[in-house]
Amino acid sequence: MLAAYLGGFLTDPMIGEISAAGGVLIMGLGLVLLEIKRLRVANYLPALLIAPLVVAMLTMMGVSF
User: Fold this and answer.
1) What is the Cα–Cα distance from 18 to 30, expressed in whole angstroms?
2) Residue 8 and residue 3: Cα distance in Å, rounded?
């Protein structure tokens, strides 16, 4: 239900940035699981909220994506 509500608000560039942030989180989890690097992946979770907000602010300022 949340996706249906946010679908009208999120633009394609916002969804792209959320996907990019999610990809970084998944790579970090992979590094932790393989015991290559100990990262605190939970510290990166706010990026899933901040990235689309940055895109929205830049769009308001006239930057096109």
Assistant:
1) 18
2) 9
Please count the other Cβ atoms lying within 10 Å of the Cβ belonging to residue 53: 11
Q: Pinpoint the alpha helices (H) of 1-65.
A: 2-6, 12-33, 47-60
Instruction: Report the distance separating Cα 22 and Cα 15, nearest Å.
Output: 10
CA distance 24 to 41: 9
pLDDT less than 50: residues of the chain: none
DSSP conformational letter for 24 = H
Task: Extract the tokens encoding 6.
Answer: 């946010």
